[in-house]
Amino acid sequence: MADTKSLFARRQRRTRHALRQAAGGRPRLSVFRSGRHIYAQIIDDRKGATLAAASSLEESLKAKVKTGADKSAAAEVGKLIAERAIAAGVKEVVFDRGGYMYHGRVAALANAAREGGLSF
Asked: CB-based burial of residue 56 (10 Å sphere; 0-12 exposed, 13-18 middle, 19+ buried)?
C-alpha cells in the first residue's frame, strides 16, 4: 500500500497538471503550508520564474500574528501576496492548492488574496 507522502505527491501532480491545462497563460498562485508557517508564491510557468512571494516568516507579519500556523496568519499572507502581485502587474492567477484540501489555512489565504484584488 502506498504511504502518505507518495499519495500526497500524486495528488499534487494531478492538481498541477489540471492547472497547467486550464491556466491559459495565467501565472499560478502556489501555496505551501508546514506545521509552523504558510508560504505563497506567484509563479510564471512559461518563464520558470517567481513573480512575487510572501510567507508568515516575514518580520512585518511576525508582529501582527501570534503564530504562523493559524488562519489569521494565512489571511495576512494572502493580503500580502495580493499586494505584491498587483505591484508586479499580475491581477489574474490560477490557484494551486498543491495537494492540500481547500479548507482551513489554504482557504483563508485564498479568500484574503481575492479580497486583496486577485481574481481566480
From this structure: buried
N-terminal to C-terminal alpha carbon distance within the chain: 36
Other Cβ atoms within 10 Å of 28 Cβ, number = 21
- Residue 93 near residue 81 (C-beta atoms within 8 A): no
Mean pLDDT of 12-31: 89
How many CB atoms are closer than 10 A to CB 97? 21
For the domain made up of 4-115, give the CATH fold.
Nucleotidyltransferase; domain 5 (3.30.420)
CB 85 within 8 A of CB 52: yes
Phi–psi pair at 26, nearest 5 degrees: -75, 145
Q: Which of 1, 9, 6, 2 minimizes the C-alpha distance to 100?
A: 9
Name beta bridge partners: 92.
Answer: 119
Q: Give the tens place of pLDDT for each residue, 42-96.
A: 999 889 999 999 999 999 998 889 898 999 999 999 999 999 999 999 999 999 9
Q: Where are the domains of the chain?
A: 4-115
pTM higher than the cut 0.85: yes
